[in-house]
Fold this sequence. Notes:
Elements: H1 8-33, H2 41-68, H3 72-78, H4 82-95, H5 104-135, H6 141-160, H7 175-186, H8 202-217, H9 219-229, H10 236-246, H11 254-276, H12 290-305, H13 324-339, H14 341-363, H15 379-407, H16 413-426, H17 442-454, H18 467-481, E1 487-489, E2 492-494, H19 496-523, H20 532-543, H21 558-573, H22 575-582
Antiparallel strand pairs: 1-2
Helix pairs in contact: 1-2, 1-5, 2-5, 4-5, 5-9, 6-7, 6-8, 6-22, 7-8, 7-21, 9-11, 11-12, 11-13, 12-13, 13-16, 15-16, 15-17, 17-20, 18-19, 19-20, 19-21, 20-21
Amino acid sequence: xxLHFKNSRLExxxxxxxxxxxxxxxxxxxxxxxxxxxxLPQQEQILYGVQIFLLGxxxxxxxxxFVNMSSKSEFWGANWFEIPLLxxxxxxxxxxxxxxxxxxAEASAVRHLAVGIYLVIQVVTKLCRTxxxxxxxxxxxxxxxxxSFLFLIVSGAGLLxxxxxAGPDKESLRFVDALFTSTSATCVTGxxxxxxxxxxxxxxxxxxxxxxxLGGLGIVVFGAVFALLLGQALSLRESVAMQDLxxxxxxxxxxxxxxxxxxxxxxxxxxxxVSMYGMWDDIPGRVTSVHGQWFCSIFHxxxxxxxxxxxxxxxxxxxxxxxxxxxxxxxxxxILGGLGFSVLYDLANILADRVKRFFKKRFDKQCRFSMEAxxxxxxxxxxxxxxxxxxxxxxxxxxxxxxxxxxxPGASKDADVLGALFQSITARTAGFNTVDISAMSxxxxxxxxxxxxxxxxxGSTAGGIKTVTLAVVVMTAFAAxxxxxxxxxxxxxxxxxxxxxxxxxxxxxxxxxxxxxxxxSITENSNEARGMSDIMFEAxxxxxxxxxxTGMTPELTDAGKLIIIATMLIGRLGPLTLLxxxxxxxxxxxxxxxxxxxxxx
Length: 601
């Protein structure tokens, strides 16, 4: 919502004050909770006093903005949540020790907690609103997305470097390792230089989990979600910006799609966590406490749906390769996260339409002959579902064939089938593994490289060139062989601009893959135990934001880590997105040169 103020200069001053106050809030929490050595009581009281002062700053800012607003109704429409939030804060602060039967120390802790929660909510909402406003500033929204990712990565690295983020008896992370971990989590890759379950404390693991969730869905989308949840309607410019970022076809369904992304994500991840809860009993003593089981379930559910590949276990899911949860819970989560939100939205609409038509036919006989035609599946959905199914089946068959040929007839066929199926699914950017990747044959690893290169589907949390891109490139070659002028799929023609984008994305991915492989072969030449196959596998895993590794990641030099960091960021944002951000203001030429025949092939 575009708000109008009487004094624009005063509004700019308030924006600066907000930024300084938000930074001060963040610094106070870092000092309070970021260090292992406990603070002195006097130091804690000073920090709590600073937070109370910042609370007053935020409240005063709201009062000044209310007075400065041209329309008071617009202000209440945009900030209606402030009243119940402040009311809850006052009830908690005043009631602790009076209305609630708490001791003096407990009442003080409750008051500090309430103030802290209020400040966190204020900082988060202001950050999200800033992201939406930047995306709607009239500039290229992809630049805002890139800047948001970079800001999230650097902030995450700073939090992971805090002493309390390190595990018991572990030293604080070096900047390179913290930056690598933060980039891997934000880009939902899963490559690690430190053991997530052992080298990080609960605080560090929560930071990683938050980076996975924010990076998987995009911090700009989160900004729009918060704006919608707080009752604000997106302006036309904001809607156009979000439409560009989400690749939505129409502005009218944009709000519904953003709400679907948020609600669908929470629902799927919650179902996954609940379904996964009993899985940890398969190995007695590994996850002992109830709280640990729940945290393990939530962590792996979010990691699986966001196709991140982070695991709290050093061997990923090798220890659970015979568990039902891996194949009945983890695999569906990976597949759903890799299909793309536009496909899930289309399937949900079709399902809702079918249910509505069923009840109308059954209970409203007068509407039988006046109903509209049933909703049909979009071309995008057909391509994504068909290509994804083919890749899963063909990939599993190829891995099974090559691995059985390499290992011999003595291998367990049942275990191999399940392992091949899981690796075929997870290689398309999830990054978990139930088998030792370094023990696989060269041909089996090559199949994984191809699957990692392809990745998931557009609009999903997955990386790679995407399934639709592969389908367009293959059908372009097929159309040339058939001597057809147009690329056709499911009795529909594909626009020439889409064909050009698909070829561009594929070509750029190939170039980046070979450049990164060459760069790693130079920086890692001192490691004689790693050959070119390991190096290319590492490069393909980083570019496809997968997270599978032959064990090379912890052995990388600092230069190699920086190369992988850049590769993960390129793979997450996509070469075409980076190209669009750099060439957004270029104007097309208004002339054409005469054509001349050339020979190719």
